[in-house]
Amino acid sequence: MTEATNASTHTIAGTVLTMPVRVRTAHQHTAMFVVDADAAQAMIDYSGLQVCRFARNRAMVVLMLMRYEDTDLGAYYEYGTNVMVNPPGSSASGFSALQSAGAFVHHLPVDQSFTLEAGRTIWGYPKVMSEFTIRGADDPAGVRHGRSFGFDVTIDGQFAVGMDFRPGLPVPAALTGRKQVHSTYSYLDGVTRETPGEMVMTGVRYRPGGVTVRLGDHPYAAELASLGLPKRALMSSSAANVDMTFGDSRVF
């Protein structure tokens, strides 16, 4: 991973974090959904960003569960609803536009207070405190052997969203092990931010479909339902480990 020079620092709950923040060990489960672009735009219109449109007014939404183990922010669970958007100022469309699209983080519940404060303060991520119920294996051995996995997210005592993943097929490391450079976008307290990041995944598995989504009574569930969920996923995936860095955000 890239080493920082003249690195900036942030103090969170008395702890000094030097940028970029590093994630050394984390397990990931994701599912990609093709949804109506107008519905996705209505959901994130507050951000001022534009969804990346392709294939007759379609947009891409990615739901994911991360279990962070060894990171500068500690160990925690995190669920994310991510909408693929154009870089600010771009009106690109079509499948080729997805190559330059970034992920706008619309939902981001976590289960630990330190990462909640750091995420909101440093990057403007919309982290909220939540509880996670985990079923099955999200450890490296479980992912490697293709065991089933599921989770539920509860916020303020209300069930928000749950997902159940079926085992995927292993993908050769030569196809997935290269460093990926990406941007995520966030909006909090009237400010839109872009955060650069780098990621290397190992032990990756993919499967067409492969996931069941369950929605609850929390307002997050109503927003997901407005996209047409639950529906069949385009693709689901898991990674035995994700090594990441997050730099300082840029304010628009």
Automatic annotation (TrEMBL):
InterPro entries: Acetoacetate_decarboxylase, ADC_dom_sf. GO terms for molecular function: lyase activity. It holds the Pfam family ADC. Coiled coil: none annotated. This is Acetoacetate decarboxylase. It comes from Mycolicibacterium poriferae.
